Amino acid sequence: MPQSETATGIRLALWSKDDLDLLHQVNTPEMRAHLGGPEREEQILSRHERYLQPTDPGVSCMFRIALLPDDESAGIIGYWEREWQGETVYETGWGVLPHLQGRGIAVAAAVRTIAAARAQRRHARIHAFPSTGNPASNAICRKAGFTLSGQCDLEYPPETGNIMHCNDWSLDLTDPAPPPPPAR
């Protein structure tokens, strides 16, 4: 999948072996407050290996969000398949480093990630499941064009027993792509 740029000065770079440090940077109590807390080192290494596995971009794809022109790492975003209410859909999630939040980076990255998932022509919908207590991620969903479908409870991280009360945001991938958000 080619790397892409937006008017907000970012690009999405396919996840690489050099991105392990970024997983450590987003593994803070502040960044993981709505996700069950920081992960243990073995969980971070396992996540990194999963992100590196060659996979069909129709199934999943993880990116490093990079700021232009210096290629500074700003965060993580991706999409992957999941079963939801009897159908296979894409799910997306992201994290932007605290010192870079509030600049439209996550919205621009979400719009590009939606476009990448849409280009696969594999699933009709993409969902995001931010915690109901995470106003920033819920605002990103709204600004990126998602529609609030309701609330749900999800176990996250999987197989931990930690239940998150989430908003279910969804977007129809069969609709034509909306224009990217304006530059900030």
TrEMBL record:
SUPFAM superfamilies for this protein: Acyl-CoA N-acyltransferases (Nat)
KW Acyltransferase (keyword) present: yes
Superkingdom in the source lineage: Bacteria
Record key words, sorted: Acyltransferase, Transferase
InterPro entries, alphabetized: Acyl_CoA_acyltransferase, GNAT_dom, N-acetyltransferase
Annotated signal sequence range: none
Keyword Iron-sulfur: no
Gene3D superfamilies given in the database record: 3.40.630.30
Annotated ranges, domain N-acetyltransferase: 10-169
Pfam families: Acetyltransf_3
Family recorded in the similarity comment: Belongs to the acetyltransferase family. RimJ subfamily.
Protein name: GNAT family N-acetyltransferase
Protein source organism: Streptomyces gossypii
